[in-house]
Every structure is written in structure tokens, then in C-alpha cells.
Amino acid sequence: MSGLEILGAASTVLGLVESAINLAARLREARQRQKDLAGVLDRHAQELAETHRMVALIRNEEALQTAAVATKLIAMETVAQGLVATLTRIHTSVGDNGKQRRLTQFFYQLAHGSRDEADLQTAMEDLGRAKADLGLCISVAHVGLSRGLQDTLVLNTHLLERVDSAVRTVVGNDHGLLIGKLARGRPIREDGTIAVTGDDLASLHRDRGGRSSSQTVPDGNSTVGRHIVADNMTAGQALQINGPVGAQEWYKTSHLLVQDNEATGESTQINAGMSMEAFSALLRARKI
Predict the structure, then answer these.
(1) DSSP string, 91-132
(2) C-beta atoms surrounding 4 within 10 Å
(3) 73: enclosing H helix or E strand
(4) Phi, psi at residue 189, to the nearest 5°?
(5) Mean predicted confidence (pLDDT) in 65-74
(6) Closest-CA residue to 57 (of 213, 172, 217, 156)
(7) DSSP state of 200
(8) Higher pLDDT, 102 or 265
């Protein structure tokens, strides 16, 4: 997926989330005196605002526009479309017909567990999960990591610190970039970079406590390493890519182990690397 396509996906999600924010605000204003309902909508509005800030961050920070993040944005787009459809249906049915009795009845039902409230709650829970998945992808992005001379790995601390600060501002101080751990207590070169190894990156994966890996981990000081894809499961219409895409293809794999992975329903699971062109074609095919 090209940078322009990622920006397009981010802009689409931002537009949908903004529509949801506006619709939720109009519902809240329709019955400001309904305190219970206002509280529910306030919580939803906060979740929507946090989602909006997160997606805007991705749109503004090229370093966060990774293939994994793009995949989660596509998934969030579908969720946001469902949320906007739910809010539009509720607002259309009660907000503009001028029937005060029906409006009052709606808010009574909504405040006491009506079907509309349940549908809205489900849609918001789906958005919350999509936001959490997107936040995880952001936190594990290899921001500032590149290949230096003689196939060494270097970390640009200036870029890392700037983006990490932006992520913490938006997502929270407890959710900074995981790769930032590698910069702590290490000597920084005059150009603002530090040397890292494949073992350093592998240690980040171990810190996450997972057994399966969706990124190739270089072995030692070289870019030749091992790639393990294990114990992954997808369902529904999910898309999961457990391999390097596009810019990450400079990771070379000497050993690939794929085991105990399962894809059910209409989900798609790819357990190998792929080009950016193939990735873009896959996303286009899923939207047909």
C-alpha cells in the first residue's frame, strides 16, 4: 500500500469518525435534560474523540504509516461505517420528525436498554476493539530503525523521540513506542543514531510475551535471521499478514517456521512476506 493510499485510508476513517462525532453530539443535544443518556453519549463522544486523534496522528506521521497499521485502518473503516449507519438510523428515526411523543419515548427506551442503545453499544465496542488493535500496531512500529553501513542496524533517536512524544500525547504516557526501550542508556553517535542488533529486536518481542511473531527478527548483527509464525487465529472477515511488507523487505530470512495457525470463515491469513504491490492488490480485492 503506497503512502498516498495509506493517507487516503486515514482520511476516510477520519471522515467517518467525524460524522459519528457530529451525529452523537446532535443526539445528545436533542435531550440534554436526560442525564443518564447524556452520560452514555459523553462516554461515547470521548471514545470517538480519542479514535479521531489516533487516526489523525497516523495521517500526520509518515513513520507510523506501516503495512500493519494500514491493515488495521482498513478494518477500522468497516467498523466506522457500521457505527455511522447505526447513528444515522437512530437520528433519522427520532431527530427530525417533530413528533415530541415519539422522541420522548425513544430517549426513555434508549436510557433503559432499548434495542437502539444495544446496537449503539455494540457498534462502539467494535470501534473500541479496532482502536485497541490500531494502538497496538502503533506501539510496535519500528520508528527510526534503518539499515546502516555494512548491513548494520541503526536507530534514529531524533525521529524516535519526536514520534514517541506524539504517540504518548495522543495514546497516553503508558503507551509509547516499544522500540524506545532500545535507546535507554546507550551511547548516541554525533549523527543522533545508536547501533542496535537483531538480538535487541528479538528482546522486544520477548518482552511482549508472545510466541508468534509477525516481524522477521534479524539474527545477531546481520540482516539474516529467523521468522516464526505460530499460534495465530483469524475469523470472520479479518485480514492478518504475518510477514514483512514493502519497506520492511530488507529483512532477510534464513529460517522460516510456520505452525499451528488457523484461518476460519472468510478471513485471510498470509504467513510470508509480500511486496507492497501485492499488498495493495489484496486490499483492493477485499473491498470489491
Answers:
(1) HHHHSSS--HHHHHHHHHHHHTT-HHHHHHHHHHHHHHHHHH
(2) 8
(3) helix 67-94
(4) -70, 170
(5) 87
(6) 172
(7) H
(8) 265
Q: DSSP states of 252-277 as a string?
A: EEEEEEEES-EE-TT-EEE-S-B-HH
Q: If you average pLDDT over residues 224-235, what whole number do you get? A: 65
The answer to whether the beta carbons of residues 234 and 240 sit under 8 Å apart is yes
Burial of 43 (0-12, 13-18, 19+ CB in 10 A): exposed
Rounded-to-integer distance, Cα 273 and Cα 204, Å: 20
How many degrees, rounded to 5, is the angle at CA 106 between CA 102 and CA 110? 175
List the grid coordinates of 188: 548516541
Judge whether 145 and 185 are in contact, CB under 8 Å.
no
User: 261, 240 in Cβ contact below 8 A?
Assistant: no
Q: pLDDT tens, 31-68?
A: 554 556 667 788 899 999 999 999 999 999 989 988 88
Residue 215 above 50 pLDDT?
A: no
Residue 124 CA neighbour count, 13 Å, CB half: 21
Phi, psi of 284 (to 5 degrees): -65, -40
- Work out the percent of the chain whose per-residue pLDDT is above 70: 70
